[in-house]
Specification:
The protein is an alpha+beta fold. Helix content is 20%, strand content 37%. A three-stranded antiparallel beta sheet has the order 3-4-5, with no helix packed on it. Strands 1-2 form a two-stranded antiparallel ribbon. Strand 4 and strand 5 form a beta hairpin. The longest helix has 14 residues. The model has no long low-confidence stretch (mean pLDDT 91).
C-alpha cells in the first residue's frame, strides 16, 4: 500500500489502484473485500500479511482512505 493507493503485483506485472477508486470495503475473519463497484470486488486474504499488526495497519488505512457507501 501507499499513501495514494493499493499496489497490486502479479506474475504479469504491477499496477496501483488509487484509494478513490474503491467504493467500499468489508472484512471477515480471514479476508478483506475491496469494492470497485456494486458488483466488482477484490479479495485480499489476511494470510498475505506478515503479522497481525500489518492487518491492523491495513484496516486503519482502509478506514482513513476509502469513503464507504453505507447508505
Amino acid at each position: 500500500t501507499t499513501e495514494s493507493g493499493l499496489l497490486v503485483t502479479t506474475e504479469n506485472g504491477h499496477m496501483k489502484i488509487p484509494w478513490s477508486d474503491f467504493r467500499d470495503w468489508k472484512e471477515s475473519r480471514s479476508i478483506f473485500l475491496l469494492y470497485l463497484s456494486d458488483i466488482e470486488s477484490s479479495t485480499l486474504p489476511k494470510h498475505f500479511f506478515n503479522s497481525k499488526n500489518d492487518v491492523d495497519n491495513f484496516r486503519e488505512i482502509l478506514r482513513n482512505k476509502v469513503n464507504r457507501n453505507d447508505a
